[in-house]
Design brief:
Blueprint lengths: L18 E7 L3 H17 L3 E7 L4 H15 L6 E9 L5 H20 L2 E9 L2 H8 L6 H19 L3
Parallel strand pairs: 1-2, 1-3, 3-4
Helix pairs in contact: 1-5, 2-3
Length: 163
């Protein structure tokens, strides 16, 4: 079955003043670098401010997001969105399911509870080859797509709030 590129989201206008939390898992470093490069290109195009955070693995992403959201809110500098990036590659044990499901569920629970834009670019794949196909900016560009998804949700939130 042929792999198709995700479609570009239609609105890529700048979002002046928006703040994005960019969290990356460093477990698969080279793949993470490619995901981040894709995300940064989209965030820079939108001219948003972003704070990058690196964590050891995918399970730490939701925890770091929750800690960061609370700290930023307490400081009077709330985030408008989160871009989560990482890679979980299936192994021989059930650990893959535990990590991938819990990371995704915790991120979604956090986003819905906090009503904050989320772009989930945590790859869950069977092989490293599949990860590269999805991560490369010339192919899947999941990092860029995750950033675009978060930005689309920020635009929706701002439109609904009349900003």
């Amino acid at each position: 079955m042929a792999q198709t590129k995700p479609k570009r989201l239609p609105d890529e206008t700048p979002i002046i003043g928006a703040r994005i939390l960019l969290i990356e898992s460093r477990f698969h470093e080279e793949i993470a670098d490619e995901l981040v490069a894709g995300a940064l290109a989209r965030l820079e195009m939108a001219r948003v401010k972003f704070d990058p955070i690196a964590v050891p693995g995918a399970l730490e992403i939701p925890v770091a997001a929750a800690i960061s959201l609370e700290a930023a809110g307490n400081a009077g500098l709330p985030y408008d969105g989160i871009v989560a990036l990482g890679c979980v590659i299936r192994g021989e044990t059930e650990h893959f399911e535990i990590v991938s499901h819990n990371c995704a569920r915790a991120l979604m629970d956090l986003a819905v509870a906090r009503r904050i834009a989320l772009g989930n670019g945590v790859l869950t794949v069977n092989t490293e080859e599949q990860a590269w196909t999805r991560a490369r900016r010339t192919e899947g560009n999941v990092g860029g797509y995750a950033a675009s998804a978060a930005l689309a949700l920020v635009r929706i939130a701002r439109a609904r709030a009349g900003r």
